[in-house]
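>> Question from a student workshop board

For tomorrow's exercise we were told to take the sequence and the ligand below, predict the bound structure, and bring the output to class. My setup keeps failing. Could a helper post the expected result so I can at least see what it should look like? The ligand is 3-methyl-2-oxobutanoic acid.
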Amino acid sequence: MTTRRLIEMKQRGEKIAMLTSYDYSMARLVDEAGVDVILVGDSASNVMAGNITTLPITLDQMIYHGKSVMKAVKRALVIVDMPFGSYQGNPMEALASAIRIMKESHAEAVKLEGGAEVRESIERILSAGIPVCGHLGLTPQSINKFGTYNVRAKEEAEANKLIEDAKMLEEIGCFAVVIEKVPAELATRVAKELTIPVIGIGAGGGVDGQVLVVHDMLGINQGFSPRFLRRYADLASVINDAVGHYVDDVKTGDFPNETEQY
Ligand code: KIV
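>> Workshop helper replied:
Here is what the output should look like for this input. Compare the format with yours to find the bug.
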């Protein structure tokens, strides 16, 4: 899978399936099951490290997750999120961070949050031949500015800025844009106006593809149930039952039996 192929998929009207992964074992399963894109999201900060926000995760930690995922993936395109503080400061710092991600993790693209505010950083990264995916709408690295994880761009001014930012991202050369938690009508309009794929999360079905956090859609992370999330499994219950069963078997002496020893 390549960035170019994703654009061709949009041209053909073929939807793009994207999921997050952060480690070797999950990435292998997700890749083998046929997703088009694996996002090594900075949601690793929440899901893997137990932080409340995505802000604490470091560039070194994102590279570690990216490297682990890359070892597993045979088909999907792998995008690594640029963590908070690694690209907002100045364009040269952004370029250095993106180069580290590409060189050390071997990923194929980076994603970063924001529009006009980070334009120069994106241009600098693109100038080095590094594919960039944008991220607009609810951008979790700005949670302290927003003060809430509610739907974004309900008001006209914010919706207009999102449309302008999305067009700008396409114009300067981004290969795709993630749009998170905005009204479906707005996301559909953006997808219609852009030639690059718009991947939605909580942005309705009128966009070119969907992304979810894999731990959320598999029901591992049970404390998070926004309206946009569809749970495809209840792995928390499966794991709870299996581990409970194991504990019982160990305590009663049922495990290991004669065939499970040397
Ligand atoms: O970090 C992440 O997982 C993301 C997706 C939710 C789009 O950015």
